[in-house]
Structure formats: C-alpha cells, structure tokens
Specification:
Length: 82
C-alpha cells in the first residue's frame, strides 16, 4: 500500500521532535504494510469519513482508498479534531 502525506501532515512531521517523528512514521508504515498488526490502535472517526491511528499522544487522521493510505492530518490528541 502506498502512503500519501498532505501538507498539514508534512508540516507536523517537520516540526515534531526527532523521536516522535520517527515513532509516528514507523507506525504509519507498519499499518500500511499489515493493517491487522495495529488494529486495536485504529478506529473509525465519528461524524466524518476516515480513520484515526493512535501513536501515544499523537493522532494520525487518514483515509483508505484501493491501494493508497492518504494521511490527512497529524497532531496531538487535544488539537487534532478542530
């Protein structure tokens, strides 16, 4: 599965500390490769389309298409849902 990052997601990753950035990217790649591996950390969003992936205090908002994981936004838990 291919991974496509939005401008918002790239902005967060560029500003994040190196260890947090590495952890988030690792979890995204792991989910793209084997979705069942992180099934308990992924849930469908309520009130809108898409899914969220929990990575500690960070949330990754994404949509799935046929062969692409579109990363829409990445942010800390309290700030991501605005």
């Amino acid at each position: 599965m291919k991974i496509a990052y939005s401008k918002k997601a790239i902005k967060f990753l560029n500003q994040a500390p190196a260890n947090e950035k590495a952890r988030v990217i690792d979890k995204i790649k792991t989910y793209a490769k084997t979705p069942a591996a992180l099934a308990n950390n992924v849930s469908k969003l309520q009130g809108r389309d898409g899914y969220k992936l929990r990575v500690g205090g960070v949330r990754v908002i994404f949509e799935l298409s046929a062969d692409t994981m579109n990363i829409l936004n990445i942010g800390h838990r309290g700030e991501i849902y605005d």
